[in-house]
Amino acid sequence: xxxxxxxxxxxRKEAVEPLTPGRxxxxxCGPTVYDLSHVGHARVYVAFDTIVxxxxxxxxVTLVRNYTDVDDKIIKRAxxxxxxxxxxxxxxxxxxxxxxxxxxxAPGDVEPKVTEHMPGIIGLVQTLVARGxxxxxxxxxxxxxxxxxxxxxxxxxxxxxxxLGDMEAGARVEVNEEKRHPMDFALWKAAKPGEPAxxxxxxxxxxxxxxxxxxxxxxxxxxxxxxxxxxxxxxxxHHENEIxxxxxxxxxxxxxxxxHNGFVNVDNEKMSKSLGNFFTVREVLAKFDAQALRYFxxxxxxxxxxxxxxxxxxxxxxxxxxxxxxxxxxxxxxTPGAEAPPHREAWxxxxxxxxxxxxxxxxxxxxxxxxxxxxxxLINEVLDKPKDRDTDARTLRAVRKAxxxxxxxxxxxxxxxxxxxxRIRARREQKQGLDAGKINALIAERAAARTRKDFKRAxxxxxxxxxxxVQIKDxxxxxxxxxx
Length: 484
Description:
Elements: E1 4-7, E2 12-15, E3 23-28, H1 39-55, E4 60-65, H2 72-81, H3 85-102, H4 118-130, E5 134-139, E6 144-148, E7 185-190, E8 205-207, H5 211-221, E9 225-231, H6 235-250, E10 255-261, E11 264-266, E12 269-270, H7 281-285, H8 290-298, E13 306-307, H9 310-333, H10 342-360, H11 365-384, H12 389-410, H13 417-432, H14 436-451, H15 455-467, E14 470-472, E15 481-483
Parallel strand pairs: 3-4, 3-9, 9-10, 11-13
Antiparallel strand pairs: 1-2, 5-6, 6-7, 7-8, 11-12, 14-15
Helix pairs in contact: 2-3, 4-5, 5-6, 8-9, 9-11, 9-12, 9-13, 10-11, 10-12, 14-15
């Protein structure tokens, strides 16, 4: 089965055919850096990190992911804090990178900043003016505004599936009397007192939001490239405007495949800073492991909305804990030796083939995770009921290798099991404020009760521990406990 992706531009799944055989150019819209990253950001970048990891298996990928480091929101936040907008942006770029590293999101091959690409942005605006797609209007004492004339671009609205006549000004489209059409948008904004500004043919000013991505993507990927990604909220106006700018300037098709991830919702509303219903990545990671958050985000197809709450995250962490406990058992059972025996090779190869089938179908990570759950169930079955220890050990070694291969794509199973399990247990104990001394004393009392065959008291202690959020498991080496 060939790799197929859902293309927002066509509204259907399409087989991936690179513009250059064996190579893919991908641009993903990066963050506007004026605050800490929230779970909505994590959804975008975990989704496209996983997509790119999978594509790198078969293609030479160039991933460009930008930083918007000058913007109205950055300027507003900097004024509130009494800081320089550029210093504020630099601070939050570093914080974003720290969060993404914790989540296992790899850096882009190129991570351009708007402030470092002013000559290219200004040049692109000049091209659009020269070709009749943009005009100068209004401004301030320091400079003039430049707007894109949407009526000049005949196919405006095709990505969003909306006719120009039906559109209304969106949240980030400015409306004023200087515009020729209400949907015309700013390519260049005249400088205002106290704001960052750059010299241009129109006086001092700074770029509009949309022009930056057209300029940076064309610099690193050319006027036409393979894939462009981002959240569904960017389809209109941002990505629509990118198409209008880029194709008007180059006269060539801009992007072949448009991929958009669904929202993270809280109480059925999109999580966003503007609505004030967001949770930062760090707030979530104070309560749950990073592997749990990544698993949670991958458990829903990237195009579908995902509802955020502590309950599903706890379930995801429980699942991650089970997976790593199984890997710990698996690692203990694996010894050096030959490959899997012939009659077990099919099972091992099927792990990878089923994973590839799921991912080739528009990166269906929930299907991939469901298939892996069955693999982990079978691993535990083999470990619980060994038949031929040599055959089992050889098979499990091959299975572990296959799990590393698929885990490298998902961003899971890469940490040492003991490290993950220790992190989860320690966080749960801390969160619940458990008293280890009291727990161990109760376990000792329970052991004494069992010795004297006072099973009623032993069961009562077990229930008391459960009420405290502590689970125990009797074994030959004693009675270990953990927070639940």
